Amino acid sequence: METKSEEKSSAEKTIFDAIAQNDLVEFKNILAQHKGAVDFFDENGMTALQHAAYKGNKDMVQLLLDRGADVNSGKHEYNYTALHFGALSGSSEVCKLLLDAGAKSTATNSVGRTASQMAAFVGNHHTVATINNYIPRSELSYYSAVQGQQTEPYLPAILVDPLHKFVLGVNIHPVRLALNLQHIPSLLDNAEKVIKTLELLCKKEMTRGGDTNEVMAFKYHYLAYVLREIHNIRDKKPNSDKDDKKHDVVEVFSKKLLKPGKDGVSLDLMDTFLKDCVREFPFRECTTFHQMVSSLASKDPPPALSVINCTINGQRGFVDAIPYCSTCGEEKPAKKCSKCKSVQYCDRECQRLHWFVHKKACNRESSAPAPSNAKVNIDANELSSELQNLVAG
Ligand SMILES: [Zn+2]
Ligand SMILES: [Zn+2]
């Protein structure tokens, strides 16, 4: 008994240091030597899991959860939960792990704020969206069981995990959804079943009485709508080009949506496609629907994509200077067009899909004479890569 409590207190002391220093090796050592529960508390009533969440350290969070750490435990004086700390850290991955482990997103701290409200308060928009878009896996697995008179379930069990991943995605740009579906062909292969399940989920969210979630209901409707369109394109493909079938579908779909309108900039086709989606939402009495329609029908309406994004992922402030991919809207993309450097992309695939739009502007930008003060503004690295391009070209 004596040795056990000493052993525990030494683990208790050192584990908080290891977390504070982000020392994963030491952290693993401590856990390996410690047998028994891992709900350690520091002198302020914070658990090791809360500390790891606050650090945004997903490996440590995962290891503690694997060892059975209680995700909703804590005696923090302001009632912060592990999810509150994860939200403050800005790590969406940590929040996702905590939510998967059963963290209650509705828990409030002593000033009445939920984890997602705390994330919004400190400007962690992606984390806000991750928490607000979260649904437990059980919501979907319900449809993989045979109900009542059914002989087969709505959703094959094998599709529960891929569909869960698809539904939790925060980037709802239709081209991003198409690119994601390309990597999970099982959802496209079973599109009709998946669409039916999404429609049932939508209806369920609207008929929960006090717990009605209009936003999630709209998201299910939206995903079903986009999936149906991609499925229709795929269906029309002749079987002869079986090999690049998947590839082509994304290309046809993104060409349809990214083609600029008469002014050469605005995405008229995308706008029409998405407005039709809003129009087809079956629950026309709800506040969410009315807000979207009044926004789309206003005098100088914002693009339908941004209306839908605001609805699903929450309104953003005015500090939207974050760079995004010109093809799929992903934030902070890794690559720039090497020729003109005025557009950004996630990867080669996104660049390839956008080239039919960008090629004109790219030639114009890169052949335009540089303004006279260009030398002052350009940084040395950029200049040398420009020179390399010239040499290579
Ligand atoms: Zn992209
Ligand atoms: Zn370019």
Structural domain tally: 3
Low-confidence stretches: 370-380, 386-393
Radius of gyration: 25 Å
Structure classification: mainly alpha
Distance between the termini: 75 Å
In percent, how much strand structure appears in the residues? under 5%
Q: Topology as H/E string?
A: HHHHHHHHHHHHHHHHHHEEHHH
The overall pLDDT, averaged over residues, is 87
* Helix coverage percent: 55-70%
- Tell me how many strands there are: 2
The biggest sheet, with number of strands, parallel, antiparallel or mixed sense and barrel status, is:
2 strands, antiparallel
Number of helices: 21
Strand order across the biggest sheet? 1-2
Shape: globular
Bound molecules: zinc ion
Subcellular location: Cell projection, Cilium
Domain MYND-type: 325-362
Pfam families: Ank_2, zf-MYND
Organism: Chrysodeixis includens (Soybean looper)
Give the structure's gist in a few sentences.
With 393 residues, the protein is an all-alpha fold. Helices cover 58% and strands 1% of the residues. It has 3 domains: 2-132, Ankyrin repeat-containing domain (Serine Threonine Protein Phosphatase 5, Tetratricopeptide repeat, Alpha Horseshoe), CATH 1.25.40; 138-269, no CATH class; 320-368, no CATH class.
Keywords:
58% helix, metal-binding, 393 residues, Serine Threonine Protein Phosphatase 5, Tetratricopeptide repeat, disordered C terminus, 21 helices, binds zinc ion, mainly alpha, single chain
Task: Give a verbal description of the structure.
This protein is mostly helical and 393 residues long. It has 3 domains: 2-132, Ankyrin repeat-containing domain (Serine Threonine Protein Phosphatase 5, Tetratricopeptide repeat, Alpha Horseshoe); 138-269, no CATH class; 320-368, no CATH class. Helices cover 58% and strands 1% of the residues. The protein has 21 helices and 2 strands. The chain has helices spanning 2-20, 24-33, 48-54, 58-66, 82-89, 92-100, 115-121, 125-132, 137-141, 160-168, 174-183, 185-189, 191-206, 214-236, 245-258, 268-279, 287-296, 304-313, 348-367, 374-377, 380-392, and strands at residues 335-336, 344-345. Strands 1-2 form a two-stranded antiparallel sheet. Helix 5 (82-89) runs parallel beside helix 7 and helix 11 runs antiparallel to helix 15 (245-258). The longest helix has 23 residues, at 214-236. One zinc ion binds next to helix 19.
